[in-house]
Specification:
heterodimer, A: alpha/beta, Rossmann fold, six-stranded mixed β-sheet, B: mainly alpha, 11 helices, 0% strand
Chain lengths: 232, 253
C-alpha cells in the first residue's frame, strides 16, 4: 500500500483567530489510519478549538483535509443545554438523520442497559451521559472518533472504565482516534502519538520520546514530572 | 364569516406555531428574545395603524431591521447582546410613541385580534401552518444545533444556515404574534407554553405536543373569554397560558 493512502487527516498551516487573537497558529500534522493521537496542552491551549476547526465548526486559515469518505464521530466534553429540554435517549439518537439505528445495541456496546433508551437524558449521571455520547458517536459507524476531554466530569471509577472502553473500541473497530486531554495518564495509556499544543505546536511524536521534562516544561510552563505507571 | 370565528381561527393557529417554535427557543435559553423583538415592531405597528394597513406587514420589516441592527452593532462594539437589545428595543418603543395616535395605543401594545378580516386570517393560518411544517421537518437539526454546534458540524449540518432559519422563523412569529397580543406581550406566546409543557412532558414528543396544545388552547380560550367579558383578547390569552403554567408547576420534576 502506498504510504500516503493511509492518511486519514492532513492539516497544513492551520491558524484560527478568535476576536482578533490567534488561538492556534503554525499547526501542521498528519494522522494515519488506526493511529490514536492525543492532543495535550494546558487550559486555554486551543485544544478544543482545534477539534472545532477539524469539524469545520469554526472558521480557520490553512488546510484541513479529511480522507474522502471519512465518517467522523465526535464526543463533546459536555452538552450544557441538552438538559433544558425533555429528551429521551432514543429521541436524542433520532435527532440524527437516519439515526434509527438499534439504540439498545449501541447502549449495550458502551456498557449501559438497552432499556436506558426510553429514559430521559436528564436522569443520567455525567459518567453515564458520556457513555451515551460515545454510543451516539458510534451509531453512525465512524472510522474516526474525535473525543474532547474523556476524563472531564467523571469520577475515578467511571473514568477508569471510559479509558478501558476507548482502548477496547479502538482494538475492535480499528478506529482512528483524536483525543483532547490535559491528563498525562491518558496520553500514556491510549495514544500512539502525542501532539503537545500551546496555541502553537510544542512537540509531536511517540509519548515516551516526547514527554520529556524539558518538553513538559515548555508546554505547561512549570515543572511537571511524569510518573510512568503500568496498567494491565 | 363572523369576526369571532376569524379571530378564534387565526388565534389557534398563531398560538400553536408560536408554542412549537418556543420549544426550540427554550432549549437554547432564548425564550425571551421574542420580547425585545416584539417591542421593536411598535414603530411598524404604529405606521400600520396610522395608515390603515395590516399590522403584521408593518411589524415584519422592523423585526428584520432590528435583528440586523443588533447583529451589526454586536460585531462593531463587542458589547453584550442583551445590552444592545435593550438599546434597540427601547429606541423602537420611543420612536413608536412619537407618532402613535393615543387611541391606537392599546391595539399596538396588547394587540387587537378582533379586527382581523378574512384575508388576515387566511394569511395567519397559512403562515402558521408553513412555520409548523418547516419546524416538523427541520426541528431535529435545529435542536442538534441548539444542543451543540460541534455535534451538528460532525453530522455535516451547517449551524450558520440553521441559525439563520431559526432567526427568520422567530421574526415571522413575532410579526404574526403582534397581531394577536401586541408589541408588549409577544414574548409570552413563545415562552409560556413550552415552560408549561416542560413541567409535564417527559420526552420530546410530549413536550412538543404539550407546547402546541397550550399555545393553541390558550389562544382559543382567550378569544372566547374576550368575547364574553369584553376585555381585549391579547392580555387574556397571555393570562390563560400563565394560569396553565402555574397549574403545571407542582408537576415539575
Amino acid at each position: 500500500m502506498n504510504h500516503n493512502d493511509d492518511r486519514v487527516l492532513q492539516v497544513s498551516d492551520l491558524r484560527v483567530t478568535l476576536e482578533d487573537e490567534d488561538v492556534l497558529t503554525d499547526l501542521s500534522f498528519i494522522v494515519r489510519r488506526g493511529e490514536v493521537l492525543t492532543i495535550l496542552g494546558p487550559n486555554g491551549a486551543g485544544k478544543t478549538v482545534l477539534l472545532r476547526a477539524l469539524l469545520g465548526a469554526v472558521p480557520y486559515y490553512g488546510v484541513v483535509s479529511w480522507q474522502e469518505g471519512s465518517r467522523i464521530g465526535y464526543v463533546p466534553q459536555r452538552l450544557p443545554y441538552i438538559k433544558s429540554i425533555p429528551l429521551s435517549v432514543a429521541e436524542f439518537f433520532a435527532l440524527r438523520q437516519n439515526g434509527g439505528a438499534d439504540v439498545g445495541k449501541m447502549l449495550e456496546a458502551v456498557g449501559l442497559d438497552a432499556e436506558s433508551a426510553t429514559k430521559s437524558i436528564g436522569d443520567f449521571s455525567s459518567g453515564q451521559f458520556q457513555r451515551i455520547l460515545i454510543a451516539w458517536a458510534l451509531a453512525k459507524d465512524p472510522d474516526v472518533l474525535l473525543f474532547d476531554e474523556p476524563t472531564a466530569g467523571i469520577d475515578i471509577g467511571g473514568e477508569e472504565t471510559v479509558y478501558g472502553l476507548l482502548s477496547q473500541l479502538q482494538r475492535e473497530r480499528h478506529l482512528t482516534m483524536l483525543l483532547v486531554t490535559h491528563d498525562l495518564a491518558v496520553v500514556h495509556r491510549l495514544s500512539s502519538t502525542v501532539l503537545c499544543l500551546n496555541r502553537r505546536p510544542v512537540c509531536m511524536g511517540p509519548p515516551l520520546a516526547m514527554l520529556t521534562p524539558e518538553n513538559l516544561r515548555r508546554l505547561f510552563g512549570t515543572e511537571v514530572t511524569l510518573y510512568e505507571h503500568k496498567h494491565e | 364569516m363572523s369576526a369571532f370565528f376569524l379571530s378564534l381561527t387565526s388565534g389557534v393557529f398563531i398560538g400553536a406555531a408560536a408554542g412549537y417554535l418556543g420549544t426550540l427557543m427554550l432549549s437554547r435559553r432564548m425564550a425571551l428574545v421574542a420580547g425585545p423583538l416584539g417591542h421593536l415592531t411598535l414603530p411598524g405597528i404604529a405606521l400600520a395603524l396610522v395608515w390603515g394597513f395590516d399590522v403584521s406587514i408593518g411589524a415584519f420589516p422592523f423585526v428584520i431591521l432590528g435583528v440586523i441592527l443588533i447583529w451589526l452593532l454586536e460585531r462593531k462594539t463587542r458589547l453584550p447582546m442583551e445590552a444592545l437589545t435593550a438599546f434597540v428595543f427601547a429606541s423602537g418603543v420611543a420612536i413608536a410613541f412619537l407618532f402613535l395616535p393615543i387611541e391606537q395605543v392599546e391595539a399596538a401594545l396588547v394587540g387587537d385580534i378582533s379586527r382581523i378580516g378574512f384575508l388576515g386570517t387566511a394569511v395567519s393560518v397559512l403562515t402558521s401552518l408553513a412555520i409548523i411544517l418547516v419546524l416538523r421537518r427541520a426541528s431535529p437539526r435545529l435542536i442538534l444545533v441548539n444542543v451543540s454546534e460541534e455535534l451538528a458540524a460532525a453530522e455535516g449540518i451547517s449551524a450558520r444556515r440553521y441559525n439563520l432559519l431559526y432567526l427568520f422563523l422567530i421574526a415571522v412569529i413575532v410579526a404574526l404574534g403582534v397581531r394577536m397580543v401586541g408589541g408588549l406581550l409577544t414574548a409570552a406566546l413563545a415562552a409560556i407554553p413550552p415552560c408549561a409543557a416542560r413541567n409535564v412532558g417527559r420526552n420530546l414528543k410530549q413536550y412538543t405536543l404539550g407546547a402546541v396544545s397550550v399555545g393553541a388552547g390558550s389562544a382559543a380560550l382567550g378569544v372566547v373569554l374576550s368575547e364574553i367579558l369584553g376585555y381585549p383578547a391579547g392580555p387574556l390569552i397571555v393570562l390563560v397560558s400563565s394560569a396553565v403554567f402555574l397549574i403545571t408547576v407542582p408537576l415539575a420534576r
